[in-house]
Amino acid sequence: MRLTEPFAPPPEDEPAPGWGQDLGNGGAGISLLHIEYARAGIGDWPTADRWIAAMTSKPLLAHSGAGLFRGAHAVAFALRMAGRSAHVLDHHITALTERRLTKAHERIDRGAPPETREFDLINGLTGLGAYLLSAANPELLREVLNYLVLLTEPIRIDGRSLPGWWTADEQGGHGNLGLAHGVTGPLALMSIAMSCGVTVPGQAEAIEHIDDWLNQWRCGSWWPGRISRDELESGTVSRSGPQRPSWCYGTPGLARAQQLAALALDDPKRQQRAEAVLATCITDDVQLARLGDTSLCHGWAGLVHTTWRAAEDAGDDSELAALLPRLLACWGHRHSGLPTGDGLLEGKAGVALTRQTIVGPATAWDTCLLTARPTQLAAQFEGV
Fold first, then answer.
1. Is pTM, for the whole model, over 0.85?
2. Tens digit of pLDDT for each residue in 211-236?
3. What is the pLDDT of residues 323-364, one digit of tens each?
4. Looking at the record, which segments are called Disordered (predicted)?
5. 329 burial level (CB within 10 Å; 0-12, 13-18, 19+)
6. Per-domain boundaries in the chain
7. 297 assigned ligand-binding residue
């Protein structure tokens, strides 16, 4: 029995240490699927409860480097998607988030460039902010938003003014554009938060700044995954062709974030542009041919899921809804097989959650991907 079948129980022993608290590739992510199955009546709550129990059976991982996809935040996120209380974990999460913020502000005060894992969605403060969205915690979320606004202010390295998110991960550094690991994650978080009414001074300007920077590096209907120092200096992208149209680094993730920015700013021109770019991408056979698997992170499921969410929020003049049947047919024709693993990002759970989202109705489980509809999240902030 596959672990992603509706009534599949969790394994008696963890396949690897920390597997149960792993949202990306382990038990926490598979729990999301069983919670969604239970809500839809495809599975049942006793099965989901067994997964929740397995996820919470081991000592909590709450070390200082923990992010949304592993440890306390991953467990608490799944609990909240199940409608269960995560208050027992909240003091751990608050303390961890505040420690990460303090460290980030100390780095900013030194004028040093950040590491990607300081601010990104998978490991960094953007991911912790995504959890705070799901937890409807506006006070701590605003602290994260204040940090992200500061992240958009330029820094000086070797006498040159560079974007505040320019990382020091390699010689010369780079500007990462991806939704999973780059500046598009902060853009999506700030945009969804603004649509939910959670704002801080400078947030709208920071959204505009990132969105404009992304437009500067767009190559028709695709973006490079990162900008090198040489490319920044020349103002020209050296890569000659598109990368794969994935959620994590490709056009779907970036265009969805730009659409979310446009919705937050109430800017029809930005929205039309983002939706047109995504429409061109999903009809480009050259880009589609670069998808090598069906996973949520970097395969067909991610393309389909992100486009589906964008189509749900699209304007009346958008082609996205009309193009969905063609895209679904391409998915089935070109890559209908399943991944070998069971997890959310690279396994069967992500594929199954994508299919369940299409069948609907779906919850905002994809808040962890920052593709969720703001209208699904806004109601929980009313009166908070």
1. yes
2. 999 999 999 999 999 999 999 999 99
3. 999 999 999 887 767 888 999 999 999 999 999 999 988 899
4. 1-23
5. exposed
6. 19-371
7. yes
